[in-house]
Amino acid sequence: xxxxASDKHNRRRHIVLNSHPSGGQSPIPINxxxxxxxxxxxxxxxxxxxxxxxxxxTHSGSYSIYRALAVAAGALDPxxxxxxxxxxxxxxxxxxxxxxxxxxxxxLDPYGHLVTECFETELRNGLDIRPSIAVTRARLSLxxxxxxxxxxxxxxxAILLESGEINVTKVALEPVWHLPGVAARFDLEEHxxxxxxxxxxxxxxxxxxxxxxxxxxxxxxxxxxxxxFGNPEYLVDERHRLTCRVHDECNGSDVFGSDICTCRxxxxxxxxxxxxxxxxDGVGLVVYNRKEGRALGEVTKFLxxxxxxRQIGGDRADAYFERTECVxxxxxxxxxxxxxxxxxxxxxxxxxxxxxxSNMKYDAxxxxxxxxxxxxxLPDALIPDDAQVEMEAKKAAGYFTSGDVLSEDDLxxxxxxxxxxx
Length: 422
Fold this sequence. Notes:
Layout: H1 37-40, E1 55-57, H2 64-72, H3 115-118, H4 120-124, E2 133-140, H5 143-146, E3 166-173, E4 177-178, H6 179-185, H7 190-200, H8 207-210, E5 216-218, E6 224-229, E7 242-248, H9 251-254, H10 263-279, E8 283-289, H11 298-310, H12 320-328, H13 340-345, E9 350-354, H14 359-367, E10 371-375, H15 388-396, H16 408-413
Parallel strand pairs: 1-5, 7-8, 7-9, 9-10
Antiparallel strand pairs: 2-3, 3-6, 4-5, 6-8
């Protein structure tokens, strides 16, 4: 191993390649799905593991690039380790039965919020173990509830306040992939998954193809945020009903209110239904996944918008998915197969009211053994005019609806706003 000389910013001058084990050191053992954290082992990346790391990549996903810039600019000491004093979860989550079933959770570390508790000895001995999950409390302020409450909800002083604010428990989760488990979830061979991940990231992670002994990968992608309405303990108590919405990120609609899709209306409706359930001694849950533009990205999404609006005949429901395929080569890459992992981490086995019309999300939940009761559609009155194209196209493609599905001719007649009309 090269000498670790440092410059004035405490950066290592010599590059040490970790594409193969060196110095006779082996990775810290990982027994994914073990029935206790000691047997499972901690997740350790290569920032300071001195060759004993057992995971490819690093924490914080795509934000790790900003950390690198901070080090390069001399603003951050690369040897800094987080002081985790008083950072423990504000409420207890787990362990649950699913944590020790290796096939149930493959895309996150079930002990990611408990590193100071489960690996106290290892931390004290100098091992750099970092949380990949954080649990805190917050208040949500939605204009729809604070300024124009048309939901019929009444403040109760505990969940929904007189101000219109909502008390929640919220959880941030970073992705931690167990590569054999992810491969199995998609019915792939592990070596094929590793090779394609390596190729399609431009060779960014050579360890994927050279270090078959490293079975854990921290991908540079967005994670998820969970919002719990009411008592978190009720999530696993079948005496209390659970209303749930699983929502995929849409910055344009969720944050800025763009009316070309139904994302914000459905998100807000889901939140309202979660509050309603919690007020009836149940519990509500919103899972917000960072999968912008069906995980194709916002640039691709905006290109598709232009293509839809400029095509012959205008923005038509019968050509809704075709325009995406023309630009991206595929309709959707969210692949909901990994989505149920968050619910398995929470110990959930049933959803009484699922506020979603997505057949892909429903099928993924059922495939993981999670029972789904009532499915709640988005009320017609909440669908923006320009979003009718999206809604009718999705219903025709198999989205759940208790209403009618348009014929091909009627889909062609369902059209959105022209670019000249903005």
